[in-house]
Amino acid sequence: MIHFMSQLAIRTRAVILLVDGSGVSVMRWQHQTLDACGRFDTNENDLNAFSAFVTEFSNWPFVIVADVIEEDFRTDSIAHVRGSDRAAILERKLSFSFRNTVYRTAKVIGRETEGRRDDKVLFTALTNPELVALWVDRILAAHASIQVVTSAAYVIELLYHALSLKSYDHLLIASLESRTGLRQTYLYKGKVYFSRVSPMNLDDERDFGAALIEQCGQTRKYLERVKLVPYDQHMRVEVIAPAYEDDPALTSTSVDLMEFEYVDSDQLPQKRLVAMAEREIGAIALALAYALKSDKLKNVYAPASVRRYLFMQRGGKAMYVVGMLAMLAALGLGAPRWVATWFSWQDRDLIEQRTQNLIV
Questions:
Q1: pTM higher than the cut 0.85
Q2: Which of 76, 174, 217, 324 has a CA positioned 20 to 30 A from the CA of residue 33?
Q3: Euclidean distance between CA atoms 289 and 271, whole angstroms
């Protein structure tokens, strides 16, 4: 019940921070619409202004999405164990691989097909934690609740369902984002395995198609090299870049086993949930709108220390619920006595009435 109430709070309203290398873009989710409501850079004036902004919205839940280059994806194998043994192995490997950041996670993504059939694990982390901590510290200073810390890759993963792409095992979603450039997110059977950002100028339309194909080709070669994609495997590339739907280079049906498909974001149902400037609407905004409306946005990176005010709120709600249940229980236990008392009063009134009749 408490988890449901927490998720309902995000679904109803939330402040969304989209963190990039130079600052944060702030969006507000309310009335089933995602609105852009400001930008703060990493200078002293903007940081002070952000602190004031957080104070104003301190009773809103905060969601932090990192759209940064400094996110690492690694696949490895561990012995097939369960329970506390698995948790201990994963934590040890995370601490070894990403010792300089608390924003890290690991999840089992399958099993090896040969040998001992070890578990295959995806380890990911935000490797420059200061980019996120700069804003987290100010939110916590206002005692505001941080409910989710995730990344653009894990948000874009949700488009697999939103765009009905279930028929593609190997999928690359390429989105041109106004602040960071071209983000490529590789999904295998709907789960993110890799993501990277390539700097690309949004205003330069001349060679976008050729540059896109080149960048996606580089990503595919890397995925082949780390054995995530077989060399002879076709890959679907969904391109979300509203400004370039007429680029002739994107009309090619297949390039080096990659099938490109342009996604017209203006026709997507998520578009009506986003009240933002056209240049700001990429895959991240569309996926966020879908996730918030459908209650699919989950925490990936935030440790317990970052979510402590969320847990305090949950504790307060839990005490309230327990108190209400205790009161209802007391009412339920006392009900038979009250009913008996009511009947005794009725009997007394009846006896008095009959006694009066005899006296008369």
A1: no
A2: 174
A3: 8
